[in-house]
TrEMBL record:
Protein name: Putative tetratricopeptide-like helical domain-containing protein
Originating species: Rosa chinensis (China rose)
PANTHER family membership: PENTATRICOPEPTIDE REPEAT-CONTAINING PROTEIN
PPR repeats: 79-109, 110-144, 172-202, 203-237, 304-338, 405-439
InterPro entries found in the cross-reference section: E_motif, PPR_At4g14850-like_plant, PPR_rpt, TPR-like_helical_dom_sf
Domain of life: Eukaryota
Keyword flag Repeat: yes
Keywords: Repeat
Amino acid sequence: MLRVPASFRNLRASHFSLSSSVSGSNFHNNLTELSECLVGFMNYTKLSAPSYKSLLSDHLKNHRLDEAILVFNRIPFPGVDTYTKLITGLSRRHRLDDALKLFYEMPERDVVSWNAMIKGCLDCGDLGKAKELFDGMPEKSVVSWTTMMNGHLQVGEVEMAECLFRKMPARDVAAWNSMIHGYFSYGRVGDAKKLFEVMPGKNAISWTSMIAGLDQNGRSEEALVVFGEMVASGVQPTLTTFGCVVTACANLGSLDLGVLVHGQIVKLGYCFDEFLAASLITLYANCKQIENSHKVFKESGHKNVVVWTALLTGCGLNSKHEDALMVFRDMMVSGVIPNQSSFTSALNSCLGLEDLRRGKEIHAATVKLGFETDAFVGNSLIVLYAKCGSINDGVAIFKRIGEKNIVSWNSTVIGCAQHGCGKWALALFNQMLRAGVDPDEITFTGLLSACSHSGMLQKARGFFKVLSQTKCIEVKIEHYTCMVDVLGRFGELEEAEEMIRNMPVQETKMAWLTLLGACRMHSNLDVAERAAKSIFDIEPNCSAAYILLSNIYASANRWSDVSRIRERMKSGGTVKQPGSSWFTL
């Protein structure tokens, strides 16, 4: 029933009477009052017409929530769909309390409104409230079950999601797809494959989820096999499918298949999609065809930040660091704002060139655009400053990073180790433990290196003991090499030799070369000869071992042995390799 404004109801019939007895002044006043009421009524009827829905939708679409609420309040009798529309809009802007208040005020609710409110709770991170609503639903649809299942998957409760999936009275293809995607998200590839095999009525999304999931879990070759099965089954690949397939080809470096897929993309007219263009740029860059990456870039229509960043990163991967920085500069000149990946790739190219000046210019841009506190950008800055000798600046960057990840801690510890700041590295390690961050194998490599460069033998022994007793971290050859380096610097050559011979991991020449270098430092011929023999057993023509052993003999004035070694090198065709450090992080 239409509600008439009070001002209009109170108008008397005499207001409409145009009697000749009415004076001109009164007549004018009456018309003015009438026109004002009519205009108000017209505005009111506009909001009562279906057009209010489009106005409400427009406000919600543009995030004008307060204006949307005003429009909603002027609607005479909002329907369930109108309530649901506003509830969804409020939830998306994280105004959960307002959304719940509106939901409880609804005169009647249907399954769609229940589903919208549950999803709103999940979007706002309130799984408990979502579960309460789900349990209280008078009737549930397959969407209700799937929404709740996705909610558990969002927070890593895979077993709860599985339970809901099994309890579903009926499952549509979306429910199957969600569970498969959830398995892949948490690395349960086997479960995802089993579910896909028994899934009835697979659609393009099902196949694409399998391709993407396998590729993201390091099974790119299997992903391409699934793509072949998809084509053979007669299911038409979508634009998203092609994007996933190109990415899998890029990860595998499969140029032949990638070119075939590229041809199909052009044939179907998908080549102008920005994300496909970015995937193709990455494909050719990974296959060492950076010229083709440039061609795809030039031919792409709208170049967004993803396309620019793909080319920037591709240039860096091909050691075209100058070209990468030119791409970054052109992107900025074009008015495209870099994202996290853009800055990381540009800084990595500065690192490749060891160009601190341009690195500082890019650093200034990260500060201006608010990326300096980002962990990934900050990590690249730490490594750049450390590599270019500015460890103090690197530590300062570390302190400004908002949410530090394990790479942030490791990069700073390793940077301090490389610059002989062993005490800083140990202090950072203690802070890391207090922050609740678990160290990994790279952390211990950095700590052992810090002990080596700063002359802390007992500390190194302690760290190595802890590492050996930590079941969740595998002791690798790098850790043994680090420990050999520490022992070698302190002249504990026999202990280092015994450690190498007793290593449970497969021995490599690097550990023996490290020991051989220490033998030269301490002029220990006996250990040096045994170390050299072990190296020649692994690699008979190792030029580095020959040179080191020859130098040790020379230091001991054993010139006949020097001549013998050089003759052996000559007869074996051993070529002296360019100098390098026997131990680098």
